[in-house]
Amino acid sequence: MKGAKAKAAAKAEGRTMVAQNRKARYDYHIEDTVEAGLVLVGTEVKSLRAGHASLVDGYAVVERGEAWLQGVHIPEYAEGTWTNHEPRRPRKLLLHRREIERLIGKTQEAGLTLVPLSLYFKDGRAKVEIAVARGKKNYDKRQALAERQAKREADRAMARRGRED
Questions:
Q1: H or E segment and range at residue 133
Q2: Higher pLDDT, 150 or 85
Q3: Which residues contact 165 (CB under 8 A, 6 or more apart)?
Q4: Which residues pair with 120 in a beta bridge?
Q5: With b meaning 16 or more CB within 10 Å and e meaning fewer, what string describes 1-38?
Q6: Residue 97 pLDDT grade (very low, low, confident, very high; cuts 50, 70, 90)
Q7: How far from the centroid of its chain's Cα atoms is residue 106's Cα?
Q8: Do residues 138 and 20 make contact, with C-beta atoms less than 8 angstroms apart?
Q9: Looking at the predicted structure, is the pLDDT value of residue 78 above 80?
Q10: pTM
Q11: What is the mean pLDDT of the chain?
Q12: How many angstroms separate the CA atoms of 37 and 18, rounded?
């Protein structure tokens, strides 16, 4: 249900969703998000347009004033030839210098990291949503799960109550 709403909202904004990292919202407290462009080769774009990508092991780093997306898996294009790309190669993120400096400042705080949340096409260009995030502890994850279950049970009870009337 939640995914369908996100896709509908994305389509209304002119976005075509390729991949989402739903586990990131479970594993991290999201403090801030930034939209960045990606430097891709031709077969990567074709593979993304086919809807193939995985953000699960992905993270971003800032090295020598440039932001890089690492660990993201974009499989080789099935129709590609010797020009095919390496599936887990580092990909440069396109950000303004001020945005990179802001990310450097935030990630120097203890416990903060850069995590990709979603990969999509916006007006024909590949974009990735990067989050400045703080890792959750196990008790935080259990508490979030308990809250979600309690909300679900309350919704079910309200639905049953509405049907009885």
A1: strand 125-135
A2: 150
A3: none
A4: 17, 127
A5: eeeeeeeeebeeeebbbbbbbeebbeebbeeeebebeb
A6: very high
A7: 18
A8: no
A9: no
A10: 0.70
A11: 82
A12: 14
How far apart are alpha carbons 16 and 9 in whole angstroms? Answer: 10
Distance CA 147, CA 56 (A): 24
Please tell me whether residue 41 adopts helix, strand or coil conformation: coil
Q: Do 20 and 5 touch, CB atoms closer than 8 A?
A: no
Buried (b) or exposed (e) across 66-101, using 16+ Cβ within 10 A?
ebbbeebebbebeeeeeebbeeeeebebbbeeebbe
The pair of structure tokens assigned to 152 is: 């679900």
How many whole angstroms separate alpha carbon 118 and alpha carbon 128? Answer: 6
